[in-house]
Amino acid sequence: MSIRIILDSPPEFYTNLDTIRGQVVLTLVRDEHVGTITVKLEGESRTALGIPPENPGLGIARERRSAGDTVHENHKILYKVAQVFPEENGGAAQPPFVLNRGQHHFPFQFRFPFNNACSNSEAMARIGGVMGAGGIFGMGFRVMDGTKQLMYSHVTKTLPPSFTGFPGEAEIRYFVKVTVQRPGLLRENWRYQMGLKFLPIEPPRPEKTNQEAYARRPYAFHTKSPSPTPPPLAQKKRSSFFGRSSSAPSTPVNGPPSPAGSATPPSVEMSARLPHPAILTCNKPIPLRLIAKKLVPSHAEVYLIALQIELVGNTTVRCQNLVNTEVSRWVIVARHGLSVPLSKPEDAVGTEMVVPDTLWNSFPLPNTVMPTFVTCNLSRDYQLEVKLGLCWGKPAGPATASTSFRGGRGRPPPPSRDPSDLPQELHLPLHFSTVQVYSGLTPPPALVEAMRQGRGRRVSSSTRPRPQQQQQQQSQQQRPPPSPSSPLSAETHHHQQAAAAAPALPPRPAAQQQQQQQAAPPYDDAPPTYEEAMAEEMTGPVFPPGAARPAYSGVTDTDETSLPPEKG
Which residue windows does the record flag with biased composition (Low complexity) (predicted)? Predict the structure, then answer.
Protein backbone atom coordinates (compact mmCIF):
# COMPACT_ATOMS: atom_id res chain seq x y z
CA MET A 1 0.00 0.00 0.00
CA SER A 2 1.18 3.51 -0.79
CA ILE A 3 -0.44 6.94 -0.75
CA ARG A 4 0.75 9.91 -2.77
CA ILE A 5 -0.51 13.43 -3.38
CA ILE A 6 0.13 14.86 -6.82
CA LEU A 7 -0.61 18.57 -7.30
CA ASP A 8 -1.48 20.05 -10.67
CA SER A 9 1.17 22.59 -11.72
CA PRO A 10 2.23 23.62 -8.19
CA PRO A 11 3.62 27.19 -8.05
CA GLU A 12 6.54 28.46 -5.99
CA PHE A 13 4.02 29.21 -3.26
CA TYR A 14 0.28 29.53 -2.90
CA THR A 15 -1.58 32.69 -1.95
CA ASN A 16 -5.09 33.92 -1.19
CA LEU A 17 -7.77 33.11 -3.77
CA ASP A 18 -5.58 30.44 -5.35
CA THR A 19 -7.22 27.15 -6.23
CA ILE A 20 -5.15 24.13 -5.32
CA ARG A 21 -5.94 21.09 -7.45
CA GLY A 22 -4.54 17.63 -7.32
CA GLN A 23 -5.29 13.99 -6.88
CA VAL A 24 -4.73 11.30 -4.31
CA VAL A 25 -3.04 8.22 -5.76
CA LEU A 26 -3.76 5.09 -3.72
CA THR A 27 -1.89 1.94 -4.72
CA LEU A 28 -3.10 -1.36 -3.24
CA VAL A 29 -1.37 -4.72 -3.42
CA ARG A 30 -4.57 -6.57 -2.49
CA ASP A 31 -8.26 -5.92 -2.16
CA GLU A 32 -9.06 -3.66 0.80
CA HIS A 33 -12.19 -2.62 2.67
CA VAL A 34 -12.33 1.18 2.82
CA GLY A 35 -14.87 3.33 4.61
CA THR A 36 -14.10 6.85 3.40
CA ILE A 37 -11.20 8.81 1.91
CA THR A 38 -10.99 12.45 2.99
CA VAL A 39 -8.64 15.28 2.04
CA LYS A 40 -8.03 18.25 4.30
CA LEU A 41 -6.37 21.59 3.61
CA GLU A 42 -5.00 22.81 6.92
CA GLY A 43 -2.95 25.64 8.32
CA GLU A 44 -1.56 25.80 11.83
CA SER A 45 0.06 28.57 13.85
CA ARG A 46 1.84 26.86 16.73
CA THR A 47 3.82 28.32 19.61
CA ALA A 48 5.55 26.76 22.60
CA LEU A 49 7.17 28.66 25.48
CA GLY A 50 8.77 27.47 28.69
CA ILE A 51 7.45 28.79 31.99
CA PRO A 52 10.17 30.95 33.60
CA PRO A 53 11.02 30.40 37.27
CA GLU A 54 9.73 33.85 38.27
CA ASN A 55 6.31 33.14 36.71
CA PRO A 56 5.42 29.59 37.79
CA GLY A 57 1.64 30.06 37.69
CA LEU A 58 -0.82 29.99 34.83
CA GLY A 59 -4.49 30.67 35.37
CA ILE A 60 -6.20 29.52 38.53
CA ALA A 61 -4.35 27.55 41.17
CA ARG A 62 -5.51 24.11 40.11
CA GLU A 63 -4.17 24.73 36.57
CA ARG A 64 -0.74 25.94 37.60
CA ARG A 65 2.30 24.14 36.36
CA SER A 66 5.78 23.98 37.78
CA ALA A 67 8.52 26.19 36.44
CA GLY A 68 10.37 24.67 33.52
CA ASP A 69 7.30 23.14 31.90
CA THR A 70 6.38 24.05 28.34
CA VAL A 71 2.97 25.39 27.39
CA HIS A 72 1.59 25.11 23.85
CA GLU A 73 -0.92 27.01 21.78
CA ASN A 74 -2.13 25.74 18.41
CA HIS A 75 -4.44 27.80 16.21
CA LYS A 76 -6.16 26.20 13.22
CA ILE A 77 -5.94 29.20 10.93
CA LEU A 78 -7.12 27.16 7.95
CA TYR A 79 -9.29 24.05 7.94
CA LYS A 80 -11.18 22.69 4.94
CA VAL A 81 -12.43 19.12 4.51
CA ALA A 82 -13.51 17.31 1.34
CA GLN A 83 -14.63 13.69 1.02
CA VAL A 84 -13.30 12.27 -2.22
CA PHE A 85 -14.53 8.68 -1.74
CA PRO A 86 -17.30 7.73 -1.77
CA GLU A 87 -18.91 10.73 -3.37
CA GLU A 88 -21.34 12.43 -1.03
CA ASN A 89 -24.09 12.26 -3.66
CA GLY A 90 -23.06 8.89 -5.00
CA GLY A 91 -26.25 7.06 -4.06
CA ALA A 92 -27.63 4.97 -1.23
CA ALA A 93 -24.69 2.55 -0.98
CA GLN A 94 -23.38 2.14 2.55
CA PRO A 95 -19.72 1.69 3.56
CA PRO A 96 -17.51 -0.26 3.80
CA PHE A 97 -16.53 -0.51 0.16
CA VAL A 98 -14.11 -2.91 -1.44
CA LEU A 99 -11.32 -1.39 -3.53
CA ASN A 100 -9.62 -3.83 -5.85
CA ARG A 101 -5.86 -4.13 -6.03
CA GLY A 102 -4.14 -1.67 -8.30
CA GLN A 103 -3.90 2.10 -8.54
CA HIS A 104 -6.79 4.40 -7.77
CA HIS A 105 -7.00 8.17 -8.41
CA PHE A 106 -9.22 10.57 -6.45
CA PRO A 107 -9.19 14.22 -7.59
CA PHE A 108 -9.71 17.10 -5.17
CA GLN A 109 -9.56 20.88 -5.12
CA PHE A 110 -9.68 23.67 -2.55
CA ARG A 111 -9.68 27.44 -2.67
CA PHE A 112 -7.54 29.40 -0.26
CA PRO A 113 -9.64 31.93 1.67
CA PHE A 114 -8.54 35.37 2.71
CA ASN A 115 -8.93 35.39 6.51
CA ASN A 116 -8.05 32.91 9.21
CA ALA A 117 -10.69 30.38 10.21
CA CYS A 118 -10.09 30.06 13.95
CA SER A 119 -11.58 33.48 14.66
CA ASN A 120 -15.04 32.25 13.58
CA SER A 121 -16.23 30.81 16.88
CA GLU A 122 -19.55 29.60 15.49
CA ALA A 123 -17.88 27.61 12.72
CA MET A 124 -15.31 26.17 15.12
CA ALA A 125 -18.00 25.09 17.57
CA ARG A 126 -19.76 23.09 14.83
CA ILE A 127 -16.62 21.11 13.97
CA GLY A 128 -15.87 18.01 15.93
CA GLY A 129 -16.51 14.32 16.38
CA VAL A 130 -17.12 11.86 13.58
CA MET A 131 -18.55 12.81 10.22
CA GLY A 132 -19.91 10.59 7.52
CA ALA A 133 -22.04 7.47 7.66
CA GLY A 134 -21.56 4.48 9.88
CA GLY A 135 -21.03 5.80 13.38
CA ILE A 136 -17.98 5.71 15.56
CA PHE A 137 -16.82 2.15 14.89
CA GLY A 138 -14.65 3.03 11.95
CA MET A 139 -17.44 3.84 9.50
CA GLY A 140 -16.96 7.65 9.47
CA PHE A 141 -14.02 10.00 9.40
CA ARG A 142 -12.93 11.99 12.40
CA VAL A 143 -12.35 15.73 12.24
CA MET A 144 -10.68 18.02 14.72
CA ASP A 145 -12.44 19.18 17.85
CA GLY A 146 -13.14 22.81 17.06
CA THR A 147 -14.26 23.60 20.59
CA LYS A 148 -10.61 23.62 21.68
CA GLN A 149 -10.16 26.80 19.63
CA LEU A 150 -12.73 28.52 21.85
CA MET A 151 -10.28 28.48 24.76
CA TYR A 152 -7.89 30.90 23.00
CA SER A 153 -8.20 34.53 22.06
CA HIS A 154 -8.35 35.19 18.32
CA VAL A 155 -8.02 37.99 15.80
CA THR A 156 -9.50 38.16 12.32
CA LYS A 157 -6.68 38.91 9.92
CA THR A 158 -5.35 37.86 6.55
CA LEU A 159 -3.80 34.40 6.53
CA PRO A 160 -0.16 34.71 7.64
CA PRO A 161 2.81 33.48 5.57
CA SER A 162 4.53 30.17 6.08
CA PHE A 163 7.12 30.69 8.76
CA THR A 164 9.90 28.80 10.53
CA GLY A 165 13.16 29.99 11.98
CA PHE A 166 12.73 29.52 15.73
CA PRO A 167 12.92 25.74 16.25
CA GLY A 168 10.91 24.50 19.18
CA GLU A 169 9.25 27.89 19.72
CA ALA A 170 7.10 29.05 16.79
CA GLU A 171 6.06 28.02 13.30
CA ILE A 172 3.27 28.51 10.76
CA ARG A 173 2.66 25.58 8.40
CA TYR A 174 0.22 24.74 5.63
CA PHE A 175 -0.32 21.22 4.35
CA VAL A 176 -2.68 18.83 2.56
CA LYS A 177 -3.60 15.73 4.54
CA VAL A 178 -5.17 12.50 3.30
CA THR A 179 -6.90 9.99 5.57
CA VAL A 180 -8.01 6.56 4.35
CA GLN A 181 -10.46 5.26 6.91
CA ARG A 182 -10.39 1.48 7.33
CA PRO A 183 -13.41 -0.03 9.12
CA GLY A 184 -12.74 -2.12 12.17
CA LEU A 185 -11.70 -1.50 15.75
CA LEU A 186 -8.16 -2.88 15.45
CA ARG A 187 -7.35 -1.56 12.01
CA GLU A 188 -5.31 1.62 11.81
CA ASN A 189 -6.26 4.31 9.34
CA TRP A 190 -3.80 5.27 6.61
CA ARG A 191 -2.59 8.87 6.61
CA TYR A 192 -0.33 10.97 4.47
CA GLN A 193 0.37 14.69 4.29
CA MET A 194 2.36 17.07 2.12
CA GLY A 195 3.54 20.54 3.13
CA LEU A 196 2.96 23.74 1.17
CA LYS A 197 4.40 27.24 1.13
CA PHE A 198 2.02 30.17 1.48
CA LEU A 199 2.53 33.91 0.97
CA PRO A 200 -0.48 36.22 1.38
CA ILE A 201 -1.75 38.90 -0.96
CA GLU A 202 -0.76 42.36 0.17
CA PRO A 203 -3.45 44.85 1.26
CA PRO A 204 -4.41 47.65 -1.13
CA ARG A 205 -1.67 50.26 -1.17
CA PRO A 206 -2.51 53.89 -0.43
CA GLU A 207 -2.36 56.38 -3.24
CA LYS A 208 1.06 57.86 -3.92
CA THR A 209 1.65 61.33 -2.48
CA ASN A 210 4.60 63.66 -1.97
CA GLN A 211 4.67 62.96 1.75
CA GLU A 212 7.76 61.28 3.17
CA ALA A 213 8.73 59.63 6.42
CA TYR A 214 12.18 60.66 7.52
CA ALA A 215 14.84 60.09 10.15
CA ARG A 216 17.47 62.81 10.52
CA ARG A 217 20.21 63.99 12.81
CA PRO A 218 23.15 66.44 12.67
CA TYR A 219 26.69 65.23 12.27
CA ALA A 220 28.82 67.87 14.02
CA PHE A 221 32.58 67.53 13.97
CA HIS A 222 34.85 68.78 16.77
CA THR A 223 37.57 71.40 16.45
CA LYS A 224 40.89 69.81 15.72
CA SER A 225 43.55 70.37 18.37
CA PRO A 226 46.49 72.53 17.21
CA SER A 227 49.67 70.67 16.51
CA PRO A 228 52.85 72.20 18.01
CA THR A 229 55.89 72.85 15.85
CA PRO A 230 58.69 70.47 16.81
CA PRO A 231 61.40 72.26 18.85
CA PRO A 232 64.82 72.97 17.27
CA LEU A 233 67.57 70.55 18.10
CA ALA A 234 69.81 71.86 20.88
CA GLN A 235 73.50 72.00 20.12
CA LYS A 236 75.57 69.58 22.07
CA LYS A 237 77.81 71.37 24.56
CA ARG A 238 81.05 70.16 25.97
CA SER A 239 80.98 69.42 29.64
CA SER A 240 83.80 69.58 32.13
CA PHE A 241 85.28 66.68 33.91
CA PHE A 242 82.86 67.17 36.81
CA GLY A 243 79.78 67.16 34.58
CA ARG A 244 79.09 70.92 34.65
CA SER A 245 78.01 72.42 31.36
CA SER A 246 79.78 75.38 29.95
CA SER A 247 76.48 77.12 29.06
CA ALA A 248 72.84 76.99 30.21
CA PRO A 249 70.59 74.38 28.52
CA SER A 250 68.13 75.62 25.86
CA THR A 251 64.37 75.19 26.38
CA PRO A 252 62.07 74.02 23.53
CA VAL A 253 59.96 76.75 21.95
CA ASN A 254 56.56 75.99 20.47
CA GLY A 255 55.99 77.28 17.00
CA PRO A 256 52.74 78.81 15.73
CA PRO A 257 49.67 76.54 15.64
CA SER A 258 48.81 74.73 12.46
CA PRO A 259 46.22 76.45 10.24
CA ALA A 260 44.13 73.30 10.27
CA GLY A 261 43.60 73.64 14.00
CA SER A 262 41.89 77.00 13.67
CA ALA A 263 39.50 75.96 10.83
CA THR A 264 35.74 76.03 11.56
CA PRO A 265 34.56 72.44 12.02
CA PRO A 266 31.80 71.44 9.59
CA SER A 267 28.32 70.32 10.58
CA VAL A 268 26.04 68.39 8.24
CA GLU A 269 22.49 67.19 8.77
CA MET A 270 21.83 63.77 7.26
CA SER A 271 18.26 62.72 6.60
CA ALA A 272 17.00 59.36 5.35
CA ARG A 273 13.59 59.50 3.69
CA LEU A 274 11.01 56.91 2.67
CA PRO A 275 7.65 57.39 0.98
CA HIS A 276 4.88 57.82 3.55
CA PRO A 277 3.59 55.43 4.76
CA ALA A 278 6.93 53.61 4.95
CA ILE A 279 6.34 50.43 2.92
CA LEU A 280 9.01 48.03 1.70
CA THR A 281 8.36 45.21 -0.76
CA CYS A 282 9.68 41.66 -0.64
CA ASN A 283 12.40 40.97 -3.23
CA LYS A 284 12.56 44.69 -4.14
CA PRO A 285 15.16 47.39 -3.32
CA ILE A 286 14.46 49.90 -0.59
CA PRO A 287 12.95 53.17 -1.92
CA LEU A 288 15.35 55.27 0.16
CA ARG A 289 16.61 58.80 -0.30
CA LEU A 290 19.66 60.22 1.51
CA ILE A 291 20.05 64.00 1.68
CA ALA A 292 22.93 66.01 3.23
CA LYS A 293 22.30 69.62 4.36
CA LYS A 294 25.07 72.07 5.26
CA LEU A 295 24.47 73.69 8.66
CA VAL A 296 27.43 76.03 9.36
CA PRO A 297 29.55 78.34 7.17
CA SER A 298 32.61 76.14 6.99
CA HIS A 299 35.06 75.79 4.13
CA ALA A 300 35.82 72.19 5.05
CA GLU A 301 34.83 69.22 2.93
CA VAL A 302 32.72 66.34 4.22
CA TYR A 303 32.60 62.90 2.60
CA LEU A 304 30.42 59.82 2.98
CA ILE A 305 32.80 56.95 3.62
CA ALA A 306 30.54 54.11 4.82
CA LEU A 307 26.92 53.02 4.40
CA GLN A 308 25.13 50.08 5.99
CA ILE A 309 21.38 49.42 5.83
CA GLU A 310 19.89 46.83 8.19
CA LEU A 311 16.33 45.52 8.40
CA VAL A 312 15.36 44.56 11.95
CA GLY A 313 12.49 42.11 12.41
CA ASN A 314 10.71 41.72 15.74
CA THR A 315 8.71 38.50 16.12
CA THR A 316 6.29 38.51 19.04
CA VAL A 317 5.52 34.98 20.23
CA ARG A 318 2.44 34.55 22.44
CA CYS A 319 1.52 31.37 24.24
CA GLN A 320 -1.36 31.59 26.71
CA ASN A 321 -0.22 34.37 29.08
CA LEU A 322 3.48 34.20 28.12
CA VAL A 323 5.05 36.58 25.60
CA ASN A 324 8.51 36.48 24.07
CA THR A 325 10.08 38.72 21.41
CA GLU A 326 12.71 37.42 19.02
CA VAL A 327 14.89 39.88 17.07
CA SER A 328 16.28 39.07 13.61
CA ARG A 329 18.56 41.21 11.45
CA TRP A 330 19.24 41.32 7.73
CA VAL A 331 22.13 43.36 6.35
CA ILE A 332 20.74 44.68 3.06
CA VAL A 333 23.65 46.94 2.03
CA ALA A 334 27.18 47.19 3.42
CA ARG A 335 29.47 49.62 1.58
CA HIS A 336 32.82 50.75 2.99
CA GLY A 337 35.77 52.66 1.60
CA LEU A 338 33.50 55.20 -0.11
CA SER A 339 34.43 58.77 -1.01
CA VAL A 340 31.16 60.54 -1.84
CA PRO A 341 31.33 64.36 -1.32
CA LEU A 342 28.51 65.77 0.82
CA SER A 343 29.63 69.36 1.43
CA LYS A 344 31.85 71.61 -0.68
CA PRO A 345 33.75 74.73 0.52
CA GLU A 346 31.83 77.08 -1.77
CA ASP A 347 28.37 75.80 -0.77
CA ALA A 348 26.15 78.19 1.18
CA VAL A 349 24.50 77.30 4.47
CA GLY A 350 21.34 75.28 3.85
CA THR A 351 22.57 73.73 0.61
CA GLU A 352 21.25 70.19 0.17
CA MET A 353 23.00 67.43 -1.71
CA VAL A 354 21.31 64.16 -2.65
CA VAL A 355 23.40 61.02 -2.27
CA PRO A 356 23.21 58.92 -5.45
CA ASP A 357 20.91 55.95 -4.95
CA THR A 358 23.16 53.72 -7.03
CA LEU A 359 24.79 52.79 -3.73
CA TRP A 360 21.77 50.72 -2.66
CA ASN A 361 19.13 50.46 -5.41
CA SER A 362 20.65 47.24 -6.79
CA PHE A 363 20.28 45.36 -3.48
CA PRO A 364 16.77 43.87 -3.02
CA LEU A 365 15.41 42.45 0.19
CA PRO A 366 16.48 38.81 0.60
CA ASN A 367 13.88 36.11 -0.07
CA THR A 368 13.96 35.07 3.59
CA VAL A 369 12.14 38.29 4.58
CA MET A 370 8.42 37.68 5.05
CA PRO A 371 5.76 40.39 4.95
CA THR A 372 4.47 42.08 8.05
CA PHE A 373 1.65 40.03 9.59
CA VAL A 374 -0.50 39.64 12.67
CA THR A 375 -2.21 36.42 13.68
CA CYS A 376 -3.60 35.07 16.92
CA ASN A 377 -0.37 33.98 18.62
CA LEU A 378 2.34 35.35 16.32
CA SER A 379 3.16 38.72 14.77
CA ARG A 380 6.05 40.23 12.85
CA ASP A 381 6.92 43.93 12.49
CA TYR A 382 10.00 45.66 11.17
CA GLN A 383 12.36 48.56 11.79
CA LEU A 384 15.00 50.05 9.50
CA GLU A 385 18.47 51.26 10.49
CA VAL A 386 20.67 53.31 8.18
CA LYS A 387 24.21 53.60 9.56
CA LEU A 388 26.34 56.32 8.01
CA GLY A 389 30.03 57.09 8.30
CA LEU A 390 31.10 60.70 7.56
CA CYS A 391 34.61 62.07 7.28
CA TRP A 392 35.98 65.62 7.63
CA GLY A 393 38.68 65.89 5.06
CA LYS A 394 39.78 63.72 2.19
CA PRO A 395 39.35 60.11 3.31
CA ALA A 396 42.12 57.60 3.08
CA GLY A 397 42.13 54.92 0.40
CA PRO A 398 40.41 51.57 0.84
CA ALA A 399 43.62 49.99 2.02
CA THR A 400 44.09 52.56 4.80
CA ALA A 401 40.47 53.09 5.75
CA SER A 402 40.32 53.53 9.49
CA THR A 403 37.20 51.80 10.80
CA SER A 404 34.04 50.07 9.68
CA PHE A 405 30.71 49.30 11.35
CA ARG A 406 31.91 45.82 12.25
CA GLY A 407 34.84 47.18 14.26
CA GLY A 408 37.58 46.11 11.85
CA ARG A 409 40.63 48.30 11.27
CA GLY A 410 42.74 48.81 8.22
CA ARG A 411 46.42 49.52 8.01
CA PRO A 412 47.46 52.33 10.44
CA PRO A 413 48.48 55.68 8.90
CA PRO A 414 52.13 56.50 8.47
CA PRO A 415 53.65 57.73 11.77
CA SER A 416 55.27 60.73 10.09
CA ARG A 417 51.88 62.30 9.17
CA ASP A 418 50.68 65.27 11.21
CA PRO A 419 47.87 64.11 13.54
CA SER A 420 45.92 67.32 12.90
CA ASP A 421 45.74 66.49 9.21
CA LEU A 422 44.18 63.08 9.79
CA PRO A 423 40.53 62.80 8.67
CA GLN A 424 38.01 62.99 11.50
CA GLU A 425 35.22 60.39 11.28
CA LEU A 426 31.72 60.09 12.72
CA HIS A 427 29.62 56.91 12.63
CA LEU A 428 25.99 57.36 13.68
CA PRO A 429 22.72 55.56 12.83
CA LEU A 430 19.42 56.84 11.47
CA HIS A 431 16.49 54.81 12.75
CA PHE A 432 12.96 54.21 11.40
CA SER A 433 10.97 52.81 14.32
CA THR A 434 8.19 51.35 12.14
CA VAL A 435 8.22 50.17 8.55
CA GLN A 436 5.86 47.75 6.85
CA VAL A 437 6.90 44.99 4.48
CA TYR A 438 4.42 43.96 1.78
CA SER A 439 4.54 40.72 -0.15
CA GLY A 440 4.41 42.35 -3.57
CA LEU A 441 1.38 40.26 -4.61
CA THR A 442 -1.07 42.85 -5.93
CA PRO A 443 -4.73 42.08 -5.13
CA PRO A 444 -7.07 41.73 -8.11
CA PRO A 445 -8.97 44.90 -9.09
CA ALA A 446 -12.33 43.22 -8.41
CA LEU A 447 -11.30 42.62 -4.79
CA VAL A 448 -10.15 46.20 -4.28
CA GLU A 449 -13.38 47.53 -5.78
CA ALA A 450 -15.52 45.20 -3.64
CA MET A 451 -13.72 46.34 -0.50
CA ARG A 452 -14.09 50.00 -1.49
CA GLN A 453 -17.81 49.62 -2.19
CA GLY A 454 -18.26 47.70 1.04
CA ARG A 455 -16.72 50.54 3.06
CA GLY A 456 -18.84 53.07 1.18
CA ARG A 457 -22.04 51.16 1.89
CA ARG A 458 -21.10 50.91 5.56
CA VAL A 459 -20.65 54.67 5.77
CA SER A 460 -23.87 55.47 3.90
CA SER A 461 -25.95 52.97 5.86
CA SER A 462 -24.63 54.26 9.18
CA THR A 463 -25.20 57.95 8.37
CA ARG A 464 -28.68 57.77 6.79
CA PRO A 465 -31.46 58.08 9.41
CA ARG A 466 -34.03 55.35 9.69
CA PRO A 467 -37.79 55.90 10.07
CA GLN A 468 -37.88 54.43 13.56
CA GLN A 469 -34.97 56.59 14.64
CA GLN A 470 -36.73 59.75 13.44
CA GLN A 471 -39.69 58.89 15.69
CA GLN A 472 -37.39 58.41 18.67
CA GLN A 473 -35.36 61.62 18.39
CA GLN A 474 -37.37 63.45 21.05
CA SER A 475 -36.92 60.68 23.60
CA GLN A 476 -33.19 60.45 22.94
CA GLN A 477 -32.35 64.17 23.22
CA GLN A 478 -31.63 63.91 26.91
CA ARG A 479 -29.03 61.17 26.39
CA PRO A 480 -27.40 61.36 22.97
CA PRO A 481 -25.70 58.21 21.79
CA PRO A 482 -21.88 58.12 21.88
CA SER A 483 -20.07 58.79 18.63
CA PRO A 484 -19.21 55.52 16.87
CA SER A 485 -15.58 54.53 16.52
CA SER A 486 -16.11 53.05 13.08
CA PRO A 487 -18.88 52.88 10.46
CA LEU A 488 -19.51 49.25 11.27
CA SER A 489 -19.94 49.95 14.98
CA ALA A 490 -22.29 52.83 14.15
CA GLU A 491 -24.49 50.52 12.10
CA THR A 492 -24.54 47.99 14.92
CA HIS A 493 -25.52 50.76 17.31
CA HIS A 494 -28.48 51.73 15.08
CA HIS A 495 -29.59 48.11 14.96
CA GLN A 496 -29.48 47.91 18.74
CA GLN A 497 -31.48 51.10 19.14
CA ALA A 498 -34.14 49.89 16.70
CA ALA A 499 -34.35 46.52 18.40
CA ALA A 500 -34.60 48.08 21.87
CA ALA A 501 -37.34 50.48 20.87
CA ALA A 502 -39.39 47.98 18.86
CA PRO A 503 -41.41 46.57 21.82
CA ALA A 504 -42.52 50.10 22.83
CA LEU A 505 -44.33 50.65 19.52
CA PRO A 506 -48.02 49.71 19.30
CA PRO A 507 -48.88 46.55 17.36
CA ARG A 508 -49.67 47.03 13.70
CA PRO A 509 -51.93 45.01 11.41
CA ALA A 510 -50.16 42.47 9.25
CA ALA A 511 -51.31 44.05 5.99
CA GLN A 512 -50.15 47.53 7.01
CA GLN A 513 -46.82 46.19 8.17
CA GLN A 514 -46.31 44.32 4.91
CA GLN A 515 -47.06 47.45 2.85
CA GLN A 516 -44.53 49.47 4.87
CA GLN A 517 -41.89 46.81 4.42
CA GLN A 518 -42.41 46.81 0.67
CA ALA A 519 -42.27 50.61 0.41
CA ALA A 520 -39.41 51.13 2.86
CA PRO A 521 -35.94 51.64 1.45
CA PRO A 522 -33.42 48.85 2.02
CA TYR A 523 -31.93 50.28 5.21
CA ASP A 524 -31.23 46.87 6.70
CA ASP A 525 -29.22 45.51 3.77
CA ALA A 526 -26.00 44.33 5.39
CA PRO A 527 -22.81 45.51 3.69
CA PRO A 528 -20.72 42.82 2.03
CA THR A 529 -18.39 41.11 4.42
CA TYR A 530 -14.82 40.15 3.67
CA GLU A 531 -15.87 36.62 2.81
CA GLU A 532 -18.58 37.92 0.48
CA ALA A 533 -15.99 40.01 -1.29
CA MET A 534 -14.04 36.80 -1.92
CA ALA A 535 -16.36 35.70 -4.69
CA GLU A 536 -15.55 32.47 -6.42
CA GLU A 537 -15.28 34.16 -9.78
CA MET A 538 -12.45 36.42 -8.59
CA THR A 539 -9.00 35.60 -9.84
CA GLY A 540 -5.79 35.45 -7.88
CA PRO A 541 -3.11 38.14 -7.52
CA VAL A 542 -2.04 40.31 -10.43
CA PHE A 543 1.46 39.89 -11.89
CA PRO A 544 3.13 41.96 -14.61
CA PRO A 545 3.09 40.37 -18.08
CA GLY A 546 5.74 37.67 -18.33
CA ALA A 547 6.65 37.88 -14.63
CA ALA A 548 6.66 34.80 -12.43
CA ARG A 549 5.96 34.63 -8.73
CA PRO A 550 8.91 35.90 -6.70
CA ALA A 551 11.04 33.59 -4.62
CA TYR A 552 10.13 33.01 -1.00
CA SER A 553 12.12 30.89 1.41
CA GLY A 554 10.33 31.38 4.70
CA VAL A 555 10.18 27.65 5.48
CA THR A 556 13.19 25.43 6.00
CA ASP A 557 11.31 22.16 5.51
CA THR A 558 7.64 22.14 4.56
CA ASP A 559 7.13 18.51 5.61
CA GLU A 560 8.78 18.46 9.04
CA THR A 561 7.76 20.24 12.22
CA SER A 562 10.24 21.66 14.71
CA LEU A 563 7.88 21.77 17.69
CA PRO A 564 7.50 18.87 20.12
CA PRO A 565 4.07 17.23 20.38
CA GLU A 566 1.67 18.61 22.93
CA LYS A 567 1.23 16.68 26.15
CA GLY A 568 -2.16 15.50 27.15
Answer: 459-478, 510-528
